[in-house]
Amino acid sequence: MFCHSCGKSITDGATFCNHCGAAQNVTPDSAANLNPPALQTPSSHDYSIGRVISNSFADLKSNFLTHVVATLLTTIIGGFAFGLLVGPLQVGYMKLEEKIKTGQPSTFTDIFKGFDHLVPALVAFLISAVVTGIGFMLCFIPGFFVMSLIPVSLYLVAQGETDGVQAVQRAWGYLKGNLFMPMITLLVLSVLSSIGMIFCFIGIFLTLPLLYIGSYHMAKELVGDMAPANPTN
């Protein structure tokens, strides 16, 4: 059985989707007596910064060349078209990481699979980037708290969300319960990924993958386990 709203697999006979909370084929009379399940947030499950960091290092070590090439392509190509390609490429990077974590054959070219979700990826990236930009303009600090909106919304697109606006709304639903932990996670990842600049600058491409990989694990840690709508694409 699949949710008629987000398309995710749900338990047969379920009245609400455990992913997006949408009601499933209930009558108006019975719907009034039902409450959708709460979204899983850091307050309702054990969010661990250490787990995100350790998983990121483990993935980089086990697939080093793939991640370095994928990061190089994502960074260079993402710079074109005023940065508009960053969204689809990051969605593709998360699909690459999903393949690696599920033991599927993977290659750095998987980052281009993000263009299969071009519209929702663009919309989700633009909205979340604008929100983050506004946050930085408001005394700078608010921007740090909402910057996790970008990777989480793109993660949801990579997991099958076909509506960019809905991806941002769902991402905020997961984040609003605890903005602090994801913020600290991204700050730590940013510091770790920039260490390569010490080695003649070019070394950043050896450590920058940690930021991309860590963004995936941060979003996954925040959202919880989700079955991708189409994990092989």
Automatic annotation (TrEMBL):
The keyword Kinase does not apply. Residues 2-23 form the Zinc-ribbon domain. The chain crosses the membrane at residues 64-86, 121-145, 179-212. InterPro entries: DUF975, Zinc_ribbon_dom. The keyword Membrane applies. Pfam families: Zn_Ribbon_1. Keywords: Membrane, Transmembrane, Transmembrane helix. This is Zinc-ribbon domain-containing protein. It comes from Limnohabitans planktonicus II-D5. The lineage of its organism: Bacteria, Pseudomonadati, Pseudomonadota, Betaproteobacteria, Burkholderiales.
